[in-house]
Queue: 2 jobs
Job 1
Amino acid sequence: MADYSRRQLAKYAVQQLASGQSKLLAEKLAASLISANRANQADLLIDDIKSHLERQALAVEVEVTSAHVISSATLAKITAYLKRLTNTPQINITTKIDKKLIGGVKIQTANRVWDLSIKKKLETLKESI
Amino acid sequence: MQTPFIFAETQESASGIGAFNINLKGFLFQLITFVIVLLVLRRFVLPRLIKTIEDRRKVLEDSLQNAKKTEQALADAEAQAVEIIQVARRQADQAVADAVSQAKEIIAQAEIKAEEQSERILAETKERLNQEKLKLKEELKDELADIVIITAEKVLQEKIDEKADQELVNRYIKEMARG
C-alpha cells in the first residue's frame, strides 16, 4: 500500500465525506496508518480532518468550555454566530466544564480559538503589569 | 850658545828685571814649556774637553727640552683630564635630569591611569547597581502582579456564581457577535 501523508489522507477523507461515500472510510484510514506504521498518529489525523472540514466550510467541530453549565439558549447563540462566521451549515458543539476558567467561556474549533474566560483576562492583565 | 842668555842675565842683575830676581832662562824655558803644553792641550785635550762639555751641554739641553716637553704634555693631559671630567659631569647631570624627568612622567601617567581605572570601576559599579535595581524592580513587579492576580482569582471564584457567569457569557457572546 502506498505511503500517504496525513494531509493527503485528511483530504481524501473529507472528499469521501463530502461525496457521501463514507462507508468503510474509517477502516481504510486505519489500514493506511497501520501499514505505514503510524498507528499512533490517529488523533492527529482526526484533527487534520476536522481542520480540513472547517476550511472547506463543510462542518465545524466546536468545543465550548466554561466554569459553569451553559444554558441551551446561550449555546444556540454561539451556534448561530459560528454559522454566520464560518458560513458552515453544520456546527457540532461539545461542552466541557473547567473551574479554572473562573468565569466566561472558551470556544475552540480546529483552526481557531476564542478565549473569553476570566482566567485569560487576568493573564492579560498580569502581562500588562 | 848661551851668550844672549848670559848677557841678559848679567844686564838684569844690575837693574829693572834684575830687581825682581827673574831668571830669564828659566822664564823662557817655562814659557816655551807653557806654550808647548798649551799647544798640546789645545791640540789634544781641549777639543775633547770641549766636545765632552759640548756633549754634556747638549745632553743637558735635551734633557731640559724634554723636561719642558714633558711639563707641557703633563699640562695638556691635566687640561684634557679636566675637560673630560667636566664633560662626564655634564653628561651625568643630564642623565640624572633625564631620569628624574622620566620618573616624573611615569608617575604622572600612572596617576592618570589609576584615576581612569577608578572612574571606570566606579561607572561599572554604578551601572551594575542600576541594573540590579531594575532587575529587583521587575522581580517585585512580577511578584506583585502574581499576588494581585491570585487574589483576584480567589475573590472572583467566590463572587461569580452560575447566574453571574451566565450573564457574563451572554455579554461576551453579544460583544463577539458585534465584532
Job 2
Amino acid sequence: MHEHDDDLDLVEPERYELLERPAYRFDVGRRGFFRGLGGGLFVGATFAGTPNGASARPSEPTGSTRPRPARREDLSAWLHIAKDETITIYSGRVEMGQGIRTSFAQLVAEELPAPLDQFRVVVGDTALCPYDRGTWGSQSVPRQSPILRRVGATARQLLLELASQHFDVPSGELEIAAGSVTHTASGDSATFGALVDGEELEAVVEDDVDVIPASDWKLAGTPVPKVGARAFVTGEHVYTSDLRPDGLQYGMVLRPPSFGADLTTVDTSLAEAMDGVTVVKDGDFVGVVAPDPGTAEAAIASIDATWNESREDRGVTDTQFSRLESRPVERMAWRTRTETHRGDVSSGLAEAAHVVRATYRIPYIAHVPLETRSGVAQWTGSNKLDLWAGTQSPFGNREDLAQKFGLSEANVRVQVPDMGSGYGGKTSSESAIEVARLAKAVDGPVKLHWTREEEFTWAYFRPAASINARVGVDARGRLVAWEQTTHNGGLTGLDCQYRVANEHRRFQPARADLRQGSYRAVGSTANKFAAESATDEAAHAAGKDPLEFRRDNLDDARLIDVMEAAVEAFDWGADKPNGHGFGLAVCKDKGGAICNCVEVAVGDEGEVTIVRIISAFEAGPIINPAEVEAQIEGSVIMGIGGALWEVIEYGDGKIHNPRLSQYRVPRFSDIPPMQTILLDRRDRSPSGAGECGIVAIAPALANAIFDATGERIRQLPLEAGLRRRIGQRQRR
Amino acid sequence: MEVNGTVHQVDAAATRTLLDILRNHLGLTGTKYGCGEGQCGSCTVHMNGAPVRACTLPLSACFGKRFVTVEGLADGNELHPVQVAFVEERAMQCGFCTPGMVMAAKALLDEHADPTDAQILTAMNGNICRCGAYPPILRAIRRASERMRGGE
C-alpha cells in the first residue's frame, strides 16, 4: 500500500516505486471479457520488465490458439479486434488534453495497418482498462509507446498467421494493409474482422517481437488530426461536470472558514426542512444533496455552524520563504532529506575566482484547471460504488475509496470522462470521497462540482521553495563548485546539468503553510529557476556572455543540441532596441530537453512585455508533431503565468485571491510571437512532452529582465519583484 | 426564452443564472462553468446576436430574449466555418474552453468580417485557455475569417 502522510499531504509522484500497489485481480474473468466484447482477438502486453508469464504461438491448424492463461495483473495495455472491424486499445492512462487518444492510435496503427477511424481508444476505466498508477510524469508516451508497438506488431503477426491458415498459403505470400490481409498472387483478401469472426483468441506479447524501427515510421511521426475534435467544437463532448444521468441530484459541502478549523456546533434544521434536501453529517464533514444546484446552495447557506479556528500561526504570503527555511522536517510523506556530494565543494568555492551567493524564492501557485474538479457517484446497495471523476489517477481513487468506505476494490468502479485538464492538480481523491459520501445518503446518482473558489482553496498548490545557492567559477569562466539547498520545492530538477567537479546538493523537506502536491514538472519549475538563474549570474560574474558560458560548461549533447537550435533561430547576437533584453535557459526534464530564448521589453515602472519566444525541444522520436508542438507551446504559455504574475496570497489560514479576477493567468494579449522547433531524434528512446516545456521559461525571462535592466530578480513572480525593485530605486 | 430556435418555459428563481438554467434545467451542457464571475469566457453564449457571459446573467434579464448556444451553431450536420476552422487548426487541447472560444469568435466575425489584430484581442481577451492553445486558436479565427469572406 502506498505510504500517505495525512498531515502533510504531499503527493509527489516522482518515486513511482513507492506508489506501487499490489496487483489487482481482473474484474471480469476471461469468458466474461469475451462475452462483453463479443469474441474476436485479444492481445495483451505486460509491463516492460515483468516476466512474461505466457506466450501465444498460433501454430495449430484449426485457427484457434491455446495459450497458457495470461496473468491479468501483469498486463499494462491490451487491444481487441472485433468482427465488426473495430480495433480497441485499452490503456489505464487518462486523456486530459495531451492527445494520447491520437498518439496511441497512431502507434498501434503503424504496426497494425488499418484506417485510423477503425480505432477506438478506451482509457480511464478501472473495470475495463489495465492497472495504471496515474497519468503524470509525462509517462504516457515513454511507458506505453514500446508496449503499444509490441501489441500492434503481435496482432499483425497473429492476423497473418490466421490468414495463412484461412487461405492455406505460407504467410510470406501475404500482404497486410488498410485493415485487410491479401494473398498477392491470387488476389484473395480478408478483413481483420472476417479473420477473427467466430473466434475467441487470446495472446500475450512476446518481449522480443519485432517492431518497425522509428526511422521507418510512416504514420507515427505525422501530425494526424486530433481524434474526436468535432465533438469539442459542437459542445457534444461530455466532461465529468456535464454528466446528467437520470435521477441526478446535486451535492454541496459546507466549508470551514479557514484551514485547520474544527466544527464545534452545527444546526442543519433549516436545511433538513427544505423540500427534497438530504443533509449529511459525519464528524466535521457536513454536506447536502438537493434536486437542483440552487436548492443545494440555499441549503448550505442556511446551515448555522460555529467553528473553532486554529490558533496556530498559519503563515502569510510574505513570510512563506523564511518559514520554509526555519521549519525543516525529517520526512514529508515518503520523501526524506536527500543529499549528494561530489568532490570538495568548500575547497572549490574557496579557490574560485568568483562566487555567486543567492537565494531564489518560488511561491505557492495554483494549477487553475479550467474545469474545476467534479464527480458523480452512485451506490448500489451499501457496498458497490460507481464513480465518474475528472482525476489523473482512477486506480488511485479506487483504492482510496475502497479504503475509506471499507469496500473491496472489485466493487468500486472509477471512470474518467476526458477532463478539462489536470496539470498535476487532479491526482488526489478528496472530491471523489466527498461525492461518494454524499451519494451514500441517497438513492441514485449525485454530482459534486466545485466552485472556482473551492478549487483555489481546497485543492493542493505547487510547493513553494526557498533555494540557497553558492556557485563558484574560475578565472576562465569554468564552473568549479556548485552548492545548492532546496527547502521544500522538490527533488526533481535538483541534478546538475553542467560539468562541475565539486557539488553538494541537498533537498530539505519542510513544514509547508499550505497543502501542496504535484504541479506540472513537480520540483523542476523551482529548481531550474534557481539553477538557470544562478548559471546566468555566474556567467556575468566571470564577465562572460550567458551563451558562451553555457557552451564552455556543457557536455550533454541533448542540451547542446536544443540550445544551438534555439539560439540560431533567435539570432542571439542581434542588436536590441533600448530597454530590451535577451535571456536564455536550457534544461532537461523527464527525459526531454528544452531551451527557451526570449526577448523582453521593460517599461519605466517595471512592466514586462515579452517580445518573442523561441523554444527548441527534443524528446526522442516524435509520434505526432502537432500534438508535441501543442504541448510545448502550451507549457511555455502556462509557464509565463508562473514566471511573471501568479502567486497565491494567503494569511490566517485563508486564501485571499481565490478568484480569476484576483489571480492573473496568461491571456491572448500576453502571448508574443512564438516559434517552436522540434528536434525529431528517432535514434533515441521516446520521452513525454507534457511537462518539460514549462521549466525553462521563468529563468529565461529572469535572465532577459537582467539583460534589459541590470536588475536581478530572484523571486517569482518576476513582474511584482521588478516593480518593487524599480520603486525602491526611484525612492533613493 | 428562446434557445437555439426553441421557446422554453423556465420555472426557476429569478436570481438563478442563465448558465445554471442552460446546463441544469435545459440539459444544454455545451456551455461551461469556469469561474462564476464572467472572467474566463467558458460560458459565452449569444443573446440577440451579441456575446454575453451566461454565468453573470440572471434569469430575470432573459425574458423574451433570443439565445444561441454552441449546440445551436451548426446547421444540422453542417458545422459553422468557425467550428470547421477550429478542428482544422487543432485549436484545442483539453477542449474545455472551446465552446466559449467558438461562440466569442463567431460573434467577433459577425461584427468584423476582417478583424484587425487589435479587434481580435479585444473580442477574445475575455476567454481563457489554460492549456495555452492561444496560437492555434488565433490561426483558426483568421482562417474562418478568410473562409467567410469567400477567400478559400
